[in-house]
Amino acid sequence: MKIFKGMLFIILYLVIYYFFQILFMIFGVAFVKVLETVSTQGLNSTKAMGNALITSIIISGTISFFIYWGISYLRKQKFFKICNFKKVKFHYLIIALILGFTLNSINEYLVIQLLKFDIFKDALTKFMFMSEMITSTNTIIAILGVGIVGPIIEEVIFRGLIFKELEKMMPISLVIVVQGILFGIYHLNLVQLIYTTLIGILLGVAYILTKSLWVPIFIHIVNNISALFISEDQRIINLPFFIISIIITGVCYMYFYKKREKDDKKVNENSV
């Protein structure tokens, strides 16, 4: 019964955000179509659609956040405690900043490798069109939607609410993998499924090691913003840089692990 209840809440959390995102995207697309009809000077459809997409993320993310808070209140739970919005030391955020860049580099390399396989061609075409829409939009809207609101609401959903429900059903190692897979599936694109599953797992590990949702949120924000504003000619996408990024990522996670180990040891000593 407890597992069934947890699964229902996981589905509910996903459906709420999807529903509002699709709803406001429909309104946005309809508005763009109207503008195309009445415009006499021509309309940049790609930019207009991108603005509609990001606006739908901002509005649906904000509404969903308060609905999730309301659900927690009705369940007699403290929303911010459930999601582990705990204070973190400043150097944790510096490491999160580094991880945001290295994970983005790893993602870029993986996407380039996927170009070699025919099975990913359709998904890549859709992915590239989506990227073009987003990067063609107003800079402030792009930062707010893709760089801030999107990462925050996604971390609340996956590393916060869903993570907490999964913890009631399975071992923590399996929780990290399952929420990562759900995060990948959530993006509804075969290309994104691969690298966002990997990111989701790594964000889950960061969440567990630091015991705070702020760390994966900050990693996610930096990852998204760097993807938005590092231009094609500024990106270094080759095997050596990919390997360096993996090494740096490993060192950062090892630091998180050692700090967690040290903190746990202090807690155990104080409890004796």
Outline the secondary-structure elements.
Elements: H1 2-38, H2 45-74, H3 79-82, H4 90-114, H5 121-135, H6 139-167, H7 172-186, H8 190-210, H9 214-229, H10 239-271
Helix pairs in contact: 1-2, 1-6, 2-5, 2-6, 4-8, 4-9, 4-10, 6-7, 6-9, 7-8, 8-9, 8-10
Written account of the structure:
This protein is mostly helical. The protein has one domain. Helix content is 83%, strand content 0%. It has helices spanning 2-38, 45-74, 79-82, 90-114, 121-135, 139-167, 172-186, 190-210, 214-229, 239-271. Helix 1 (2-38) runs antiparallel to helix 2 (45-74), helix 6 packs antiparallel against helix 7 and helix 7 runs antiparallel to helix 8. The protein starts with a helix and ends with a helix.
Radius of gyration: 20 Å
Largest sheet: none
List low-confidence stretches.
none
> How many β-strand runs?
0
**How many distinct folded domains?**
1
- The topology string of helices and strands comes to HHHHHHHHHH
First-to-last CA distance:
37 Å
Look at the structure and give the mean pLDDT. Answer: 87
Total of helices: 10
Q: Into which percentage range does the β-strand content fall?
A: under 5%
What structural class do helix, strand and pairing data support?
A: mainly alpha
What is the overall silhouette?
Answer: globular
Fraction in helix: over 70%
